[in-house]
Amino acid sequence: MIETNLLFLLLVGIFVGGAAGFLGSFMVLKRMALVGDAFTHVALPGLAIGLMLNIDPMLGAFAALVLAALGIWYLEETSRIYPEALVGIFFTGALAVGILITPEPELLEALFGDIQSITAVEGLVAIAASILITLVAYLISRKVILGVISEELARSLKISNKAVNLLYLLLVTGVVTLGIRFVGTLLMGALVIVPAAAARNISRSLVSYYLFSALFGVASAALGVYLSSLYAIPSGPAVVLASLGFFGGTFLLKKTFKA
After folding, report:
1. How far apart are CA 91 and CA 40, in angstroms?
2. Fewest CB atoms within 10 A around its CB: which of 107, 111, 175, 258?
3. Count of alpha carbons within 13 Å of 187, Cβ hemisphere only?
4. Quick check: is 102 in a domain?
5. Is the Cα dihedral 82, 75, 31, 87 positive or negative?
6. What is the pLDDT at residue 18?
7. What is the pTM of this model?
8. Which CATH number characterizes residue 39's domain?
9. Which structural domain range is residue 89 located in?
10. Radius of gyration of the chain (CA)
11. DSSP assignment letter at 40
C-alpha cells in the first residue's frame, strides 16, 4: 500500500510536472529549448545567496530567475545577438558562480533536487501556483502562437508581443522555481523541454500537442517521484530519465508508423 506521504508527493509532482510540460510546449515552438535549459541554472546562485542571508533559498532562486527573465526579455528586444549565444555566455557563468558559492552540504540537493524535503505547506503552495501558472499560460496561448507565426500579424491584431513574451518568461520563472525541489537546478530544464519534445513526436494538431506535453510532464514527474521513493535515489535524475523514456518511446512510435 502506498504511504500517505508518497501520495501527497505524487500529487505535487503531477501538478508541477503538468505545468512544466505545458509551458515547455511553447518554448519548443519558440525554438528556445537551449535558452530554457540554461535559464534554470541561474537559480543556483540565487539559492546560495538565500542560504548566506538566512532566508528561504526558494525566494533567492525566484529573485535570480526573475532578474534573468527580465534580462532575456530585454536582450531579445534590443540585441541582434542570437539568444542562444547570450545564454551560453551569461547563464553558464551563473551556474559556475553558483557551484562555487553554494555551501557544500546543500549543493547536491540544489543541483539534483530532494523531493523528500518538501513540507506540506510548500506542497500545497506548489499545487496552487501550478494551477495558476497553467491557467494564465492557457489564457495567453493564442497570443504566444500568433507571435511565433508572425509578429506582424500579432501587431495588426493589437497584440503586444513584448508584453506577452515578458509574461510568458515570468510564468517559466514561476514553474522553474517550483520544480527546483523536484529535479534541481541542473536538470530542471529537462522537465520543461523533454515532455514537449516527446509530445511533438506524436501530435497531429496544436491541441493534441498541448495535451500530450502536459500529460508527459505529469507522467514523468509521477513516475520519477515513485522511482525515487522506491529505490531511494535522487528525485531529479529519476524524473529526467522517466521523461527521456517517454521521448524515446514516442520517437520509436513515430518511426514505426512512418515506416
Report:
1. 8
2. 258
3. 25
4. yes
5. positive
6. 95
7. 0.87
8. 1.10.3470.10
9. 4-254
10. 18
11. G
